[in-house]
Amino acid sequence: MITSSFDPHTPPVFGPEALYQKPERPLCEVMILTFSHEVIAHAQARFAHEQIAAIPGLNGERPIYRITEQPRIGFMMLPITAAHAGMTVEEAAQITGCKQFVLFGSCGALDADLTEGRLIVPTESYRDEGYSYHYAAAADYITVKNAGFVAGVLADLGIPHVQGRAWTTDGIFRETRANVEKHKSEGCLAVDMECSGLQAMCDFRGYEYYTFFYTGDLLDAPEWEQRILGNDQEVDHQLHNFQVALAIAQRIINQ
User: Fold this and answer.
1) What's the rounded Cα separation, in Å, for the pair 168 and 143?
2) Of 67, 103, 125, 212, which residue is 20 to 30 A from 145 by alpha carbon distance?
3) Can you list the residues of the chain whose pLDDT is less than 50?
4) pTM here?
5) 225: Cβ–Cβ under 8 A, 6 or more apart, which residues?
């Protein structure tokens, strides 16, 4: 079966180390990951920073930055979907030596009552994508092991949040009504496109993955509700959540 792709016994033909040399010392200790170019522009405007590395690619170069006054913290923009985001994190880890990553992004709400006005901290994620099956044995769900840490930081900051399962898919336009109801019945609060894949890769590589979502659109309604997805209000949420991610990164360093 295609979900039996995990091979822990033989080495890969090549890996990130064949393409990039790892620095003698990490260029940053924690990296904040966002999918938003507006967030990157905001961070560049708000914080003195320097570019410490870049990932080359046919789609264009992906710069990696470090905050000058907090040089142990880096930030960069990821592409969406588990496979593309995961590969980029693997390359970033090799190029910078960083092993701790804080990712935030939007999700679709599956339970309006529980998620309204709250950030979502996934505790497990349903593996409805292909990437994770190359990094972990087949299973329906994967545990998001740093959920408690993230929830603890949010609680200390007084930020409303909820913990629960997520559904990770790489088929955003095939989130059918039956599948929405199925995953909601299993306790999934949200649907995203990266969580299970990145958790599997980080577990396999020995990296630490910290993540939280904010709700962009609503699937838990008779008709799909776009809400803030893709508009200026979403940008405002993204900018605020960079500060939340920064607080999590600072807590990781100070623990």
Assistant:
1) 12
2) 67
3) none
4) 0.94
5) 217, 218
H-run or E-run covering 44? helix 37-46
Q: What is the pLDDT of residues 149-204, one digit of tens each?
A: 999 999 999 999 999 999 999 999 999 999 999 999 999 999 999 999 999 999 99
> What is the C-alpha separation between 198 and 166, in angstroms, rounded?
13
What is the distance between the alpha carbons of residues 50 and 53, in angstroms, rounded to a whole number? 9
190 within 8 A of 107, measured Cβ to Cβ:
yes
- Residue 152 is classified by DSSP as H
H or E element that contains 249:
helix 232-254
Q: How far apart are CA 104 and CA 36, in angstroms?
A: 10
Distance CA 3, CA 113 (A): 34
Axis crossing angle, helix 195-205 with helix 82-96, rounded to the nearest 10 = 30
Residue 33's nearest CA partner among 78, 83, 66 is 78
Long-range CB contacts (within 8 A, 24+) of 170-173? 170/81, 170/82, 170/83, 170/128, 170/129, 170/130, 170/131, 171/128
Please give the domain boundaries of the chain with CATH numbers for all domains. Answer: 24-254 (3.40.50.1580)
